[in-house]
Specification:
There is one protein chain. The protein is of the alpha+beta class. It is 18% helix and 21% strand. The strands form 2 sheets. The chain has a 3-stranded antiparallel beta sheet, covered by helices on one side. It has a 3-stranded antiparallel beta sheet with strand order 4-5-6, with no helix packed on it.
Length: 173
C-alpha cells in the first residue's frame, strides 16, 4: 500500500491516542501536589448570599394559567356522563380545584362554557352554598341537601388505537 497523506494523518492520530492512553494508565495520583490544610483559608469568613424567596402566585396569575391551554391548544375536558350533574346544579362541571395555603378555590365551567370561580362560603344563584373543597371534588349544600361534584378522570384510548402511525400507513417518497 502506498502511504497517502490521509493515511499518514490517521496513523499519527492513532499514535497520539495510544500515547495519551499510556500516560493515563501509568500516571499515579502521588504526583499531585495538594496545598497543605488551612492555607486556602484567607481569614475572611465567606457569607453565603441569602436564597431568594419563591414568587407567590396571585389569584390573577392562577386564573390566567387556568384559562390558557397547558399542553395542547385543543385541550378540553372529557365529556362527563349525563348523570354527573346534581339536581339544582345542572350544567355545572368541576374543571379544577386550587388549594394554596389558606386560599381554596373551585374552578367550575357552566353549560355555555363560561368559567366560574368560587371560594368556600360563596353561593350560586339557586342558593347552593360551596361548603367543602378537597383536591378532587367540591360539596354544595342547600336547605339540608348535599350535592358533590368531582373532577372527571382522564380515560385512556381504546386498545389498538395508537397515535403512532403504522409503517404501512406512511407514504414513501
Amino acid at each position: 500500500m502506498k502511504p497517502t497523506p490521509a493515511r499518514l494523518g490517521l496513523l499519527a492520530l492513532n499514535a497520539l491516542l495510544a500515547l495519551s492512553l499510556a500516560r493515563l494508565w501509568t500516571d499515579d495520583t502521588g504526583s499531585l501536589h495538594w496545598l497543605p490544610q488551612g492555607t486556602a483559608d484567607t481569614g475572611a469568613k465567606q457569607v453565603a448570599e441569602p436564597v431568594p424567596a419563591l414568587p407567590v402566585a396571585t389569584l390573577a396569575d392562577l386564573a390566567v394559567a387556568w384559562r390558557r391551554p397547558l399542553f395542547s391548544p385543543a385541550r378540553q375536558p372529557d365529556p362527563g356522563p349525563a348523570a354527573a350533574a346534581a339536581p339544582g346544579l345542572e350544567g355545572l362541571s368541576l374543571s379544577g380545584v386550587i388549594i394554596d395555603g389558606d386560599a381554596r378555590w373551585a374552578l367550575l365551567r357552566q353549560r355555555d362554557k363560561r368559567p366560574l370561580r368560587l371560594k368556600r362560603g360563596d353561593r350560586l344563584d339557586g342558593d347552593w352554598l360551596l361548603a367543602e373543597l378537597d383536591a378532587t371534588s367540591v360539596t354544595f349544600t342547600r336547605q339540608g341537601q348535599v350535592r358533590r361534584l368531582s373532577l372527571p378522570f382522564a380515560r385512556l384510548p381504546a386498545p389498538g388505537t395508537s397515535p403512532i402511525p403504522k409503517l404501512s400507513d406512511v407514504q414513501q417518497p
